[in-house]
Structure formats: structure tokens, C-alpha cells
Specification:
alpha/beta; Rossmann fold; 2 domains; 12 helices; 18 strands
Length: 338
């Protein structure tokens, strides 16, 4: 099969013919129809995250926003059949037995395997996956539209759900690209008053179309000052991978508010302890999403309540697409198709 393969950090992917995987017991083989290109893929390829580098498989097929059709099933698989439309997220497998799995927090499972990091992902014509972790895609949602929901969509959904944002509360979103433009829509559906902050007028215009009440260009004005004039934000979600976005976002949080850590800068982030204590600000991180979260997000997509801005490109463009992600040139999501 054709695949885009990473052989070493900071080297271009190679388009190669590799052996098609065979599903073992409890696994399915999926014909990939779409795989979203996430900024995390670029970080993995560049070796930017030392915490993950030790588990990165080499050679590696990247990609963890996978949508396709079941092409074969292994022994013991009863819940899926050939022809079913399914997807595979960042969490490739979790144990199902630990304290975190038992409490609905499988994203924290210490034994988890990560798609496109520890095991081969979806930058290929086929991928195999545990049947129990391959989530069905609802009718009416195309593979290209579904793929980004398996990471970008479910990540911002879980973050905002954990923040327990209430109708009428103020939500500020810093960075309205791949994750951020979906966060705008999720916040809108939760009834929040959404303020979008970005450096791009084009992305801000799209955010307004997606339901943002206010939009602020951080390069031409004092966005934190404007948000504070509104009384500050009850919840601030940072979807940007820039440390500067966190520095600005922190000052926007009102007393008793929450700063959501979603975007992942390569550099550490830090906040003044006195300011945190003085306003009793809660800093809350959120990691991707569970299968239950994912089913909720896919249902929103099928109902037309959540729509990713998708551009499709051939798998052969993988290196070019990763470059565009590194340069911050992607407004929504680029989906690779074998």
C-alpha cells in the first residue's frame, strides 16, 4: 500500500510502498478515505515534544484523524462489519481496567497507545485498529468532514465541557485555526458569548461566520484590554501553539474564571502566582477526548451543529501540508486523501 513514512525527526516524509497491515484478533482493517493533518503531526515529525519522543515508532506513518471504511475484520470482532464507516482518534487503545478508564477518563490511561506516534496512523491507504476503539461515523457525515472531528473537534469539546461553561457566559478563544474555529462553534452551541482573537483578519471573519459575537486582531490592538472592558472572560480557551497567546490570554480571565490549556507550545508556559491567587484563576488542561466525547461530537457534526472548514489534498502533498501547518497558514483543516 502507499504511505507517507517518517524515518527520522526533522526529515521529510517519504511516499513509499509498504506492506498492508493485517488485522489480528479483535482488530479491524480500515481503508482510509480521509486523514486530517494536525499540527501535532508536525510536532511529532520534528521531535518537538521530548515527552513523546521516547515512544515514537520509527519508521512511522503519521496521522490520528482517520476516517474510512472497514475492509476486513479479525477474529472475535462482532461489533463491526466490513463496509461500516469508522474513524480512529489519537487514543489508539486504552486498557479499560485502570482507575482512569473506569471513571470515564481513558485519555489519562497510563498504558494507552497513541495513533501516529506509538503505532502507525492514517497517512496511508490502510490502517489497522482495535475494533473497540474504532468509532462509527453517523450517516450524513462524509469522511472528509468527519476526520478532523476525531482530534480537533473532540479536543475542544472536551475542554469546554470540563469547564462547565454556562449560557450567557463570556468565552474568549485565542487562535481560531484548526481547533479554534471548531471551539467557536462548540461555544456557540453551549450558549456562550464568544470572542475570537487571532492575528489573521481572514480567520476572524470566518469566526464571525461561525458564530463569534466579537472578534479582535491581536496584531493591531490590545485584545486583553478590550476583553477586560467587557468584564473579563469566564472561560478563555487557548487553541494556539504560541507561548505569547498564553501570556495575553491569562490577563483576560475574570475572577474565578478558567484558562483552558489546549494549544501545546514547545516552550513551557508560566503565570504570576500573585495574579493567579488575587483573582482565584483556575488553569485547567485538557487532553483530546474519550470515545463518549467523540460520539457526542460526531452527532453534532451529523446534525449540522459542528462543521469543520476542510480542504482536501492528495497524500503526496503531506510534506507541503506539514510545512503550511508549521508556518500557520492553515485556516481550517487540511485532509489528506490516499
Amino acid at each position: 500500500m502507499k504511505a507517507a513514512v517518517l524515518h527520522d525527526f526533522k526529515t521529510p516524509l517519504r511516499i513509499e510502498d509498504v506492506e498492508r497491515p493485517q488485522p489480528g484478533a479483535g482488530e479491524v482493517l480500515i481503508r482510509v478515505e480521509a486523514c486530517g493533518a494536525c499540527h501535532s503531526d508536525a510536532h511529532v515529525a520534528d521531535g518537538d515534544w521530548p515527552q513523546l519522543n521516547r515512544i515514537v515508532k520509527k519508521p512511522l506513518i503519521l496521522g490520528h484523524e482517520i476516517a474510512g471504511t472497514v475492509a476486513d475484520v479479525g477474529d472475535g470482532v462482532a461489533e463491526l462489519r466490513v463496509g461500516d464507516r469508522v474513524g480512529v482518534p489519537w487514543i489508539y487503545w486504552s486498557c479499560g481496567e485502570c482507575e482512569f478508564c473506569a471513571s470515564g477518563n481513558e485519555v489519562l490511561c497510563g498504558k494507552q497507545k497513541i495513533t501516529g506516534v506509538a503505532v502507525d496512523g492514517g497517512y496511508a491507504e490502510f490502517v489497522k485498529a482495535p475494533a473497540a476503539h474504532a468509532t462509527k461515523i453517523p450517516n450524513g457525515l462524509s469522511s472528509a468532514d468527519a476526520a478532523p472531528l476525531f482530534c480537533a473537534g473532540v479536543t475542544v469539546y472536551r475542554a469546554l465541557k470540563k469547564a462547565d461553561i454556562q449560557p450567557g457566559q463570556r468565552l474568549a478563544i485565542f487562535g481560531v485555526g484548526g481547533l479554534g474555529h471548531l471551539a467557536v462553534q462548540v461555544g456557540r452551541e453551549m450558549g456562550a458569548e464568544v470572542t475570537a482573537v487571532d492575528l489573521s483578519d481572514e480567520k476572524l471573519e470566518q469566526a464571525r461566520q461561525d458564530g463569534a459575537t466579537h472578534s479582535l486582531n491581536a496584531s493591531t490592538g490590545d485584545a486583553p484590554k478590550e476583553i477586560r472592558k467587557q468584564g473579563g472572560a469566564h472561560v478563555v480557551l487557548v487553541a494556539s501553539g504560541a507561548k505569547a497567546a498564553y501570556d495575553a490570554a491569562f490577563s483576560c480571565v475574570r475572577g474565578l474564571g478558567t484558562l483552558l490549556v489546549v494549544g501545546l507550545p514547545a516552550d513551557p508556559i508560566c503565570f504570576p502566582a500573585l495574579s493567579m491567587a488575587g483573582r482565584e484563576v483556575r488553569v485547567q488542561a485538557s487532553s483530546v477526548g474519550s470515545r463518549d466525547n467523540l460520539r457526542d461530537v460526531l452527532a453534532m457534526g451529523a446534525a449540522g451543529k459542528l462543521k469543520c472548514r476542510v480542504a482536501t489534498r492528495p497524500l503526496e502533498d503531506a510534506n507541503e501540508v506539514l510545512g503550511e501547518l508549521r508556518r500557520g497558514e492553515v485556516a481550517g483543516r487540511i485532509v489528506l486523501q490516499p
